[in-house]
Each structure stands twice: as C-alpha cells, then as structure tokens.
C-alpha cells in the first residue's frame, strides 16, 4: 500500500534532484547537462552580492515569522475552543465553515480578498464608509504597509480549519478520567485546558513546530504571487520562491534560479535538523 506513494516521491522529488547540477553550470538548454560549461559557485556568489538579496531575505523572514507566530497557534486555539462547545449542531456548523476555505484554490481566495478590498464597491471600503471611518475608498492592494497584514490574515482564514483537525483528533484521544478527576478537585475549564489538554497534545504540537521551523524559508508562493501582483507591492512581497520564479521562468536565468533554490533547500535542512535535535531534548522528535 505504501509502494505507490514511495514511487511518487522518488519520481517527482528525488530523481529530479540530479538537475541541481545546473546551479554550478552556465546551463544551456541546447547543450544540456553534459556540455554546459562548469562555473562552480559563480551563481551563488552573484546571489550573495545581489542588491536585491537584503530585500528578498527580509521579506522571506518577516512573512515566515508572522505566519509562524500567528498562523501556528491559531488552529490550536480553535481546536481547544471547539472542544469546549457542548452544542453539537453549532460545533459542526463551525467546523464545516472553518474547513471549507482550505479546499479553495489560492486563485479563488486571492480574487476573493482582492474583491473585498477593492476601491470599486469592495465590501471592506463600503463598510468603512458606512461607519464614516474614511471619506474615500482606501486602495489596500496598492499600499505596501497593508500587504503583510492582508497576506497573513488570508493565510490564517484559509488554513485554520484544516489545521485544527489534527489537534481535535489529539484532544479526543485524551483519557476523559483526567478531566473527571480535575473536576472533582474543583478545577475550572481553563485550568483543565492548561494542566491537561495542552500537556497531552504537546507531542503533536512539537512535531508540527519542528516542521514549521524547517519550512521557515518557505514564506509562500501562490499566495504571494497572486496577492502581490501589483508592481507597487514588490518591495514587500518578493520572497525567495517568487524571486526564483522571476529569475528562472521570466528571465530564463535557469542556473542562477537553481542556485538560489539550492541555497534555500540547504538552509531548510539545517533548520529542520537543528529543530529536531533541540526537540529531542524534550523527548519529542521526528527521528
């Protein structure tokens, strides 16, 4: 049963890794891997000396940290809150409504967000004007100061419901006798959450935190590409993934783009290994 998944990973994840060799070449599509001239670390040096490097790394780290700081605890909080709901009908409604955005493509979500924030009959601007908080529509999608807030809020809205499924499953596996004993001792629901629920789901939280730290340089791609389509937002929306796309696909600098992608992959492996080593000290690790 596992064999098809292993074949899929080998074909689409491991076999293509041979292509990273072009990061050390001036790759020419007509000459191929074998005849393209070898240049060593030239493209890595060009990336580290690029004037765009500070901007790209700043955007990548800031957006990643914002998504981690806000998006990571959000499904945990939602799962805990849903666990406390006793009205099953209301609970199922909330679960369904929160899960649905996850199954929408980023094309739909981005266009939905852009339509809501539009200056032309956008619901947010109409609400602000009706409340007399602004005299004229605000071009949210053209002002860099608003972009990170819009991006992180959209990501949380899309991911929070599906992420809470795992934590709800972990909470449901907790022995009910623990809560019963705590209730007999006079513990409040908040105290039960703090002393029972959180410690019991800590292993799951640690595993997801390790993966999140390993993906720290994965600030996103589809969401940034679609929400940051306005050229005025490039200074705050250009991250490593969109930078690789721009250099490799648009400008045909295949070797340079591969070098940048390889740099990101190596840093991600180092972060993942370090996070796993530190987590092992607490008795929770991936390997």
Per-chain topology:
Blueprint: H1 3-14, H2 32-35, H3 42-48, H4 53-71, H5 73-84, H6 88-99, H7 106-116, H8 123-130, H9 144-172, H10 176-184, H11 189-214, H12 222-227, H13 234-237, H14 240-250, H15 254-280
Helix pairs in contact: 3-15, 4-9, 5-9, 6-9, 9-11, 11-15, 14-15
Number of strands: 0
Oligomeric state of the chains?
single chain
Order of helices and strands: HHHHHHHHHHHHHHH
Identify the CATH homologous superfamily. MetI-like
Radius of gyration: 23 Å
CATH 2nd-level architecture:
Orthogonal Bundle
Tally of individual helices: 15
Mean pLDDT: 90
Which structural class matches the secondary elements?
A: mainly alpha
Percent of residues in helices comes to 55-70%
Percentage beta strand: under 5%
CATH T-level topology = MetI-like fold
* First and last CA, distance: 22 Å
- CATH class assignment: Mainly Alpha
**Per the principal axes of the C-alpha atoms, what is the gross shape?**
globular
Give the uncertain stretches in residue-range form. none
**Main beta sheet: strand number and arrangement?**
none
Give the tally of structural domains: 1
Organism: Paenibacillus lutrae
GO cellular component, one term: plasma membrane
Protein name: ABC transporter permease subunit
Pfam families: BPD_transp_1
Q: How would you describe this protein?
A:
This protein has 287 residues and is mostly helical. The longest helix is centred in the middle third of the chain and has 29 residues, at 144-172. The model has no long low-confidence stretch (mean pLDDT 90). The two termini are 22 Å apart. It has a single domain (33-280), classed as MetI-like fold (Orthogonal Bundle), CATH 1.10.3720. Helix content is 69%, strand content 0%. It contains 15 helices and no strands.
């Amino acid at each position: 049963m596992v064999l098809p998944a292993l074949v899929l990973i080998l074909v689409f994840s491991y076999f293509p890794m041979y292509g990273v060799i072009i990061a050390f070449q001036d790759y020419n599509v007509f000459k191929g891997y074998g005849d393209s001239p070898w240049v060593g670390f030239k493209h890595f040096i060009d990336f580290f000396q690029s004037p765009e490097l500070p901007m790209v790394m700043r955007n990548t780290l800031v957006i990643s940290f914002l998504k981690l700081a806000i998006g990571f605890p959000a499904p945990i909080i939602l799962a805990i809150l849903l666990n406390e709901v006793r009205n099953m009908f209301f609970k199922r409604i909330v679960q369904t409504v929160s899960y649905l955005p996850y199954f929408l493509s980023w094309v739909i979500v981005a266009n939905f967000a852009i339509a809501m924030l539009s200056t032309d009959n956008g619901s947010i601007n109409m609400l602000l004007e009706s409340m007399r908080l602004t005299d004229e529509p605000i071009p949210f999608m053209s002002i860099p100061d608003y972009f990170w807030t819009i991006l992180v809020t959209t990501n949380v809205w899309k991911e929070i419901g599906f992420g809470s499924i795992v934590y709800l499953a972990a909470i449901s596996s907790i022995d009910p006798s623990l809560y019963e004993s705590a209730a007999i001792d006079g513990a409040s629901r908040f105290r039960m959450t703090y002393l029972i629920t959180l410690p019991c789901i800590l292993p799951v939280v640690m595993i997801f935190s390790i993966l999140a730290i390993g993906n720290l340089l994965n600030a996103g791609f589809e969401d940034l590409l679609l929400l940051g389509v306005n050229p005025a937002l490039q200074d705050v929306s250009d991250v490593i993934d969109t930078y690789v796309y721009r250099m490799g696909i648009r400008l045909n600098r295949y070797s340079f783009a591969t070098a940048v992608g390889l740099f990101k992959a190596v840093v991600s492996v180092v972060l993942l290994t370090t996070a796993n080593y530190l987590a092992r000290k607490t008795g929770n690790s991936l390997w």
